[in-house]
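Kindly inspect this one:
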Amino acid sequence: LRDYAGGIQASPEHLAEVEDRLALLDRLKRKYGPTLDDVIRLGDEVSRKLSEIENKDEVLAKLQGELSNAAQQYLAAARVISRKRYEAARKLEKIVEAEINDLAMKSAFRIEMSGTDEEGNWTASGFDQVVYLISTNPGEPMRPMEEIASGGELSRVMLALKASVEAGTGKLRVARTGPERQSKGPSPAKRTLIFDEIDTGIGGRAAESVGRKLKALSRGNQVLCVTHLPQIATFADHHYVIEKRVSGQRTKTTVRPIIGEERTEEVARMLSGAKLTETSRKHAEQMIKANA
């Protein structure tokens, strides 16, 4: 160490340079840090941006070329999607109309598509505008589906749409993979479908048809349905009773599950009213067994 120290020659000028350098690095870290690595990364980023500014014409030409290529690819894909939409729309509207009429609604259903491939119409899903039109009574004009006044009608239309799409998806899956391979591979994500007032204005065979369609939908989805009709309720796997009670001068709504004999009695009550009879109980048991 003495030999090393003896070989060092003091240089005030070099010491001043080192101290100035360290001071500069400290200032840069305080402003752009906290570490020297952060300062270096920022310096590289600033250099890149400065280079882009100095060569902005070349950069702009490159970006415009990339944008033009992306636009051509988008249009090609969007036109394919649009053509397939038109083809699918004609098929779907026939299937949905048949499903709707099967639910005691003498309705006409159409899928209206509009839009051009002008840039102002471009969206992430293409350039088409799609509207579902429906006439719920003979002689009435076609109107957008969201303008339907009745909640029950809207629920049944949605049920018909869901049933049609599910049926089409199942057929497509079989066609692509074959029946023997249909169960293999990841299953599609299950959804929760909620239907309220779906039994408004129907009964008898129409209500039974609604129940069967809900049952079919439940094979691939979770279906929640609020109903007052036993023809629909008895198709369910699980039942809940919604009750209103007055407590402390306030009305409270409760939801509780029912099973076994209590479920049978509730269905019997839906059949015969507040007064339960042995006939209504037996009928309820038969319906639950038949629709299970």
